[in-house]
Amino acid sequence: MTTNEQPPMMPLRVTRNDKIADGIHLLEFRDTSGKPLPEFSAGAHIAIRVPNGLLRKYSLCNDPVERDRYQIAVKREAQGRGGSCNLIDNVKAGDELMVAAPVNDFKLPPRAQDFLFIAGGIGITPIMAMIRQVQAEGKRFRLFYCTRSPETTAFVDELSAPELAGKVTIHHDQGDPSCSLDLKPILAERRNREHLYCCGPRPLMEAVRAMADHWSSTAVHFEAFSEAETHKPGDQPFRVRLARSGKVVEVPVTKTILEVLRDNGLEVPSSCETGTCGTCRTKMLAGEADHRDLVLAEHERSDHIMICVSRARSDEITIDR
Ligand code: FES
Questions:
Q1: Does residue 222 line the site of ligand 1, with CB under 6 A?
Q2: Residue 174 Cα, ligand 1 centroid: separation in angstroms?
Q3: Which atom of ligand 1 is nearest to the CA of 270?
Q4: What pTM value is reported for the model?
Q5: How far is the C-alpha of 142 from the C-alpha of 321, rounded, in Å?
Q6: Which residue, of 34, 87, 199, 266, has the greatest Cβ tally within 10 A?
Q7: Ligand 1 atom with minimal separation from the 272 CA
Q8: What is the pLDDT along the chain (321 residues), one digit of tens a residue?
Q9: 161, exposed or middle or buried, with CB in 10 Å at 0-12, 13-18, 19+?
Q10: Distance from the CA of 3 to the center of ligand 1, in angstroms?
């Protein structure tokens, strides 16, 4: 789907808003008349209209077999645009909020049997739903969960359950990058054709992307919970030549290639628009890209570009559109 096609919204009742770790709350939503909710699979997110009017997306963390509730974990982002603080501070059990049906850009391949999960901080939320699903299906996984401290770690009790013994490693770095978990040995070898799923802060995901460059790119999956760096200080406008029509379009500093192509009437598939899902992968025939995605492996970067986030280093690039 494209993100222009927002699923319809429905009123849901908030049934919980509880602190589960320092700065993290668990919120639960149910149908106002007790009807089953639209189903979801592990990795899905919902969009919520928060009381201050913002539309924010949150990954579902409960078991996908549950049809009576959606659960999300929200981290208070004091420096954010106010969505998380508004939800945590101003929403209480009994309130009604408009919520869109779940969308999944971070699906587990049904036939895969082995998974490597890497979560940083609140990036644990989609991974929790995955662990519940994978465990119920009798598949194998290992989880490496990196947080600042025990106090800021959500879902500790569930992840410490005896049935998960030997599968879960929780690492605290006390906010000191020199104490980060060494992921190199973990990613050195792809065991049993496992699929890697990573969600967390952008620097963690970029490090994992680089360290997993020798993995098949179809086995490496990321989910971003923050905006991609589509626009940075110092960005310059550039031209994109469309090889099939010969048309040349200008990409200003305020727009992405994807937005400019759509402005010009082209139908371009997209989904996440954060450079993580792979939907907008486009062949690049000439020029040099400024890659800002987490999808392309190093050897793909000379002739492919993710047009939802990446820009150009050269004055012009030519793409196969
Ligand atoms: S739309 Fe997901 S990577 Fe571009």
A1: no
A2: 33
A3: 1
A4: 0.90
A5: 40
A6: 199
A7: 2
A8: 444 467 889 999 999 999 999 999 999 999 999 999 999 999 999 999 999 898 899 999 999 999 999 999 999 988 777 789 999 999 999 999 999 999 998 999 999 999 999 999 999 999 999 999 999 999 999 999 999 999 999 999 999 999 999 999 999 999 999 999 999 999 999 999 999 999 999 999 999 999 999 999 899 999 987 666 778 889 999 999 999 999 999 999 999 999 999 999 999 999 889 999 899 999 999 999 999 999 999 999 999 999 999 999 999 999 999
A9: exposed
A10: 10
